[in-house]
């Protein structure tokens, strides 16, 4: 503690305040990122361990303190191994930032609206027949890693084709369809499952996979439940559950048409995909 105090500058310059504010912001973001995940429990456990270790040193319990210090050292090696998937996810979230997004061709509003109508056609038909559906609509984040897990299609988006893909017991019905622009890029794709503990247990893996992808990308994911026929949309790691047709349409319009309109002018020019 004393050495820490000695390390502090005698005069506080604006740069020191900026330094502290950046650290505070990073800690806040880490807490926000791990909240509701397995890592939250681990962080609490480590804090308790550090508190015990400091307390044992303070009152002179040298053997206990030695054990606790060794455990902490061991954790430095164990944590990256145990939490490799979570750390990968956290880095992916970091990469979700605008810096890494690709440039896209801007589309006319009516072309996006027409595509939404075709997707809505499939969602409505599937909700009626209680057919499980998982449709990913790409925005700016790159999704090649996920399209590569499925069967490549490169077909124009149409209600008939989407309906056909999700017919139960057909080769492509399992997994997600990924739409990018006016193309169905792939079907039967595997998406990363969300490990958020706050997701209702009533929702199964289809919903968890939909939410999972939106935690690591800016894609919008439409889900129809096979059990209830209800339509949900996952976006930014959150699920809007049991939406009416009107609400679904409105959500997609806002997420896709208005999103397109909000792009700064330099993003509307395609350079390289
Ligand atoms: N990681 C994944 N990526 C893509 N699709 C997945 C993934 N996990 C599950 N699915 C799809 O979800 C189906 C299983 O759905 P499950 O019944 O577990 O989920 P659910 O959310 O309860 O959906 P429903 O309400 O439709 O039953 C699988 O057959 C598969 O098509």
Verbal overview:
- The protein has 273 residues and is of the alpha+beta class.
- 52% of the residues lie in helices and 14% in strands.
- The chain folds into two domains: 14-96, no CATH class; 105-257, YojJ-like (1 (3-Layer(aba) Sandwich).
- The protein contains ten helices and seven strands.
- It has a seven-stranded mixed β-sheet, with helices on both faces.
- α3 packs antiparallel against α4.
- The longest helix is centred in the N-terminal third of the chain and has 21 residues, at 14-34.
- The radius of gyration is 24 Å and the shape is elongated.
- The chain starts with a helix and ends in an 11-residue tail after the last helix.
- Adenosine-5'-triphosphate binds next to α9.
- Residues 84-245 form the DAC domain.
- Its EC number is 2.7.7.85.
Strand order of the largest sheet: 2-4-3-1-5-6-7
Distance between the termini: 52 Å
Largest sheet: number of strands, sense, barrel closure: 7 strands, mixed
**What would CATH call the homologous superfamily of the largest domain?**
DNA integrity scanning protein, DisA, N-terminal domain
Structural class: alpha+beta
Shape label: elongated
Q: Could you please say which CATH topology of the largest domain applies here?
A: YojJ-like (1
**Portion in helices:** 40-55%
What binds here, in terms of ligands, is: adenosine-5'-triphosphate
Strand content: 5-15%
**How would you spell out the order of helices and strands?**
HHHHHHEHEHEEHEEEH
Number of domains: 2
Helical run tally: 10
Low-confidence parts: 263-273
């Amino acid at each position: 503690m004393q050495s820490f105090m000695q390390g502090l500058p005698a005069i506080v310059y604006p740069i020191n305040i900026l330094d502290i504010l950046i650290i505070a912001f990073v800690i806040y973001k880490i807490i926000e990122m791990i909240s509701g995940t397995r890592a939250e429990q681990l962080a609490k456990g480590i804090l308790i361990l550090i508190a015990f270790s400091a307390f044992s040193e303070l009152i002179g319990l040298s053997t206990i303190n030695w054990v606790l210090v060794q455990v902490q050292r061991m954790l430095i090696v164990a944590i990256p191994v145990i939490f490799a998937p979570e750390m990968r996810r956290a880095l992916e979230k970091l990469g979700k930032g605008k810096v890494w997004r690709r440039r896209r061709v801007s589309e006319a509003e009516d072309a996006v609206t027409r595509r939404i109508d075709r997707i809505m056609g499939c969602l409505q038909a599937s909700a009626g027949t209680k057919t499980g559906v998982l449709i990913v609509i790409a925005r700016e984040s790159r999704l090649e890693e996920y399209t590569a897990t499925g069967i490549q299609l490169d077909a124009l988006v149409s209600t008939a084709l989407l309906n056909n893909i999700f017919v139960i017991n057909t080769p492509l019905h399992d997994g997600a369809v990924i739409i990018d622009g006016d193309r169905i890029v792939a079907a039967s794709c595997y998406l990363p499952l969300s490990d958020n503990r706050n997701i209702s247990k009533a929702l199964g893996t289809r919903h968890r996979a939909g939410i999972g992808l939106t935690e690591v990308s800016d894609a919008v994911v439409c889900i129809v439940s096979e059990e209830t026929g209800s339509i949900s949309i996952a976006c930014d790691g959150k699920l809007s559950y049991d939406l009416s047709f009107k609400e679904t349409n409105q959500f997609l319009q806002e997420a896709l048409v208005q999103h397109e309109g909000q792009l700064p002018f330099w993003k509307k020019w395609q350079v390289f995909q």
